[in-house]
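We treat protein structure as text, and this decision shapes the records that our systems exchange. The tokens are whole numbers drawn from a learned vocabulary of local backbone shapes. Below, we set out a record of this kind in full and without editing:
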Amino acid sequence: MTGMTTAADYTWLEDGYELLTEAYCLTLVRGIAPAELLRELGVEGRQRITGVAGLGGPSYELHTPFQLFVGATAIQDWTLMVEFNGYLGVTDEAMLPLSRGRRVVSHFLNVNAVDRFCWYEDGDLRLHFEPLFADARHGSRPDELVAEMRESGFDLSERDEDEDNDDYYASLTGASFALAHRLTGIRLTPELFAGAEFLCGVAPVPRG
């Protein structure tokens, strides 16, 4: 996979996107336009916001246990959905139906250091794992991306929960971006984050 990125290629997130990287969920969905994606997720209200940073304020203002503010933008034949302090993109009840006939790749982190990476394909959860403990992988194809995970920057050895993980933890968001790049072919850049126009609204959280 020549031209694929690694965790080191996403250090730019530390400059200008600190709020996002504290608590975020990013989702890439193939073969669907932003408006259709929002419709399938039952999103109410529509507004347009330019730039990822502009999604932060509305996200925190409208956040409730059962509603999340989401923004969606088209990139080639994919749609990128961004959530500040959200988790819809790693909610199986929402993403498994959405993935029928499509590929969905999402990664998530919250302020309590809970994290998740998911690869959904055609109604199937093929891979999910916690980035900090990438040795524990689950799904229908848990080991299919071992090489890609390692190349992206994940440590696949067993880790002690009590060991000092600060340096490694700091690189995990970049590793998740890099693995998503390998699964989708979509590289997220500072230029895209600054200039993309997002169609936004409030999505209900499925109650399992």
